[in-house]
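Q: Start with the shorter request: fold the first protein.
A: Done. Sequence, then structure:
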Amino acid sequence: MSPVAAGGTPGGAGGSVEAEPDQQAEDFGTILAFAFVTFMDGLEAALDAAGHTPSRGQYGFVLRALLDGPLSLRDLAEQLDMTSPGALKIVDSLEADGYVTRRRSETDGRVRTIELTDRGRDFIAVARRFHHRFEAELAAEVGADAAADTRRALTAIVGRRSATIPRMYRRP
């Protein structure tokens, strides 16, 4: 029997929270998934309201990778830990929607680089404003300390270094 089920307190003597599965309102992973879906629904609505194409998160990582300047397809794919054909598929969509353009490299005429357009930079600006507003609304709802604790907890989870997180976002 778990410490909680035996009348103990979560995080008590054993330091862990171990309620029986049937006592959990929702599993932790389910709550994380629903929080993400809620966040993405709001982000997509903000982007749509600003005239941007819905992307369900596919565009954001690629556009952010281009913030520091143009990249070749190979370099972009490497930063995002994707195959070049996978990156090409997203870049083709981004170009069709007006978020990126391709140009001949200034240093190597054989290479075409991908760079942000003004529309691509605006997409990122709208997304960043939404991120800030979402976190501010959370702080207003649960308190600044709880919102800061949530950010620290999520950062700790990300810090576990999942191999599926693009290399450019992994912490050393």
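Q: Next, the second protein, separately.
A: Sequence, then structure:
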Amino acid sequence: MRTATSLLVFLIGCTSDNISSDEFLAALVNAECEQAFACKSTFPATSEVSFDDLFGTDEGSCRSTLADYYDNAAISAAIKAGHIAYDGKDGASCVNGLSAPDCESYWQYGLDYPDACFTALTGQVDEGGDCTIDFECAGEMYCDAATCVGP
């Protein structure tokens, strides 16, 4: 529970009503890794992959892996290029509203993300458009072979 408490302390410190995309992404990475390691002892034994394969052997390796996924440089470039719209108020609302569920719920559903988390970064590239990362694609689409495609 130490990690869940530190997650709450971290989030309480993020009470700004407008944060940068870098702060937003760092907060998501920290929250996910802290909760995963807080719940490590209850990781489902029936999982097809090990905890270490998903999250690494320590919180630092977890943060590094997730930071690679939430590629700040690529997201910042896409925001500047107009391929992603970023709303700093939604980013702050997301971070301030994140909550850590009990471990059983965490393994089934993940963190409790407020609605603002899903509107902080909004992909602007339509189906068939050029992309480099999933976040650029509108709606439920994703980037496949440098093209936004439907789910």
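Q: Describe the second briefly.
A: The helical segments are 2-12, 21-38, 51-55, 59-69, 72-81, 88-97, 103-109. The first strand starts at residue 84 and ends at 86.
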